[in-house]
Amino acid sequence: MAFDPASLTFDARGLIPAVAQDHATGEVLMMAWMNAEAVARTIETGRVTYWSRSRQAFWVKGESSGHVQRLIELRIDCDRDCLLLLIEQEGPACHTNRRSCFYTALREGEERIVLDPMV
Amino acid sequence: MAFDPASLTFDARGLIPAVAQDHATGEVLMMAWMNAEAVARTIETGRVTYWSRSRQAFWVKGESSGHVQRLIELRIDCDRDCLLLLIEQEGPACHTNRRSCFYTALREGEERIVLDPMV
Prior knowledge:
2 copies of one chain form a homodimer.
Chain A: E1 16-22, E2 28-34, H1 36-45, E3 49-52, E4 57-60, E5 69-76, E6 83-89, E7 104-107, E8 110-113
Parallel strand pairs in A: 1-6
Antiparallel strand pairs in A: 1-2, 3-4, 5-6, 7-8
């Protein structure tokens, strides 16, 4: 049976969280949100497309920056309410120009920046 | 300055998504939710503690199953609205007895189970 994005479990806003992971290195790069249409577009085009909550619009990742995400494989969790995107990331995933958005670590009770922006 | 969980960005329900990743293998194991108190308890005890939305109660992962998660490092994303937990996972993370909750892959337009339950 062909996969139907509507079979996923969306929250009250019609959104599902999607975690993007570098398919080759395993690095977790970012988390953002998709609606059913963003899931469908991502699968159809192979270009990861989120739903921007702030802009209330589709967000083709990298459309303006060039830092695109190519979908290698989409995974669904047991509750069908979270997606894991195995991707190929062009350059930085983060708007701060860092490879990953998760660049702040808690160490000895203090926040430490553990990733530098890419040059 | 000591880290204050209240400095994170919580949603309207007072929750923040937390992605658990095996610190050694890089495998993404699950995603669940925390409130500020769950974040504080996780840091204090080193035992990952979520907030169960269905039970509306703290959920010390593995408390009944023994499949505990030990926090190795907590990371915060650029928007401070998502956490990445680098953990040591005892046994399976998923209630289906699989190592990861993300055991369903979309391949050639069909859903495929790509992880077997652990014995």
